[in-house]
Amino acid sequence: MITAPQVARMIDHTLLKPESTEEQIIRLCEEAMEHQFATVCINPSWVSTASKLLKGSGVGVTTVVGFPLGATSTYAKMAEARDAIASGAAEIDMVMNIGAMKSGLYETVKRDIEGVAQACKDQAVLKVIIETGHLTDEEKKKACMLAKMAGADFVKTSTGFGPGCATPEDIKLMRTTVGPELGVKASACVRDLDTARRMIQAGATRIGTSSGVSIMQGKSGQGY
Prior knowledge:
The structure is a single chain. The chain has 224 residues and is of the alpha/beta class. The chain has one domain: TIM Barrel. The chain is 45% helix and 17% strand. It contains 10 helices and 8 strands. An 8-stranded parallel barrel has the order 1-2-3-4-5-6-7-8, surrounded by 7 helices. It is globular. 49% of the residues are buried. It comes from Cohnella kolymensis. Catalyzes a reversible aldol reaction between acetaldehyde and D-glyceraldehyde 3-phosphate to generate 2-deoxy-D-ribose 5-phosphate. It catalyses: 2-deoxy-D-ribose 5-phosphate = D-glyceraldehyde 3-phosphate + acetaldehyde.
């Protein structure tokens, strides 16, 4: 069975609430260092702060782009990504153009991801949030294939601000679609160690959660 420390190295310790304070960001980074989580996942305005706090710790900085709706322009997403990388972000979680996906405008979706992939090239890992709660199973498969074709490194289930939760069934579908080449990130409602393990067993290689400390303590968290 996968151990708690092994799970820890797959966790993006997340705080994306708009009212998050500097004190809370500092605490998030301290917790991430204590438990040796993979990264902290924070809003772009806090990237520089977190990057300085985490320097040399082995914990990276993830930030979000086009968040949480995915409805900004490709140019704006590229600019966000470049600015975040310059401030110290090592990983970028971008929200796919969900409206274009639902409209069947697949080339638009692909070009949007390609733009951010180009901004991240050789500098940052790119995860594409497909927001599974808005998609049918066929749309989930198509979104994952478009992300793979566009040069993403990961596909990710959810923002945590949309409908639904990450499920083992969605993780398995996403893993089957992208194959072993891409990472798969399970985000939204992963609040305890058992759920995290089930996501990993289904094919997840990263867990996005605000309940990382509770997971490490064998408790159930209440957040994202």
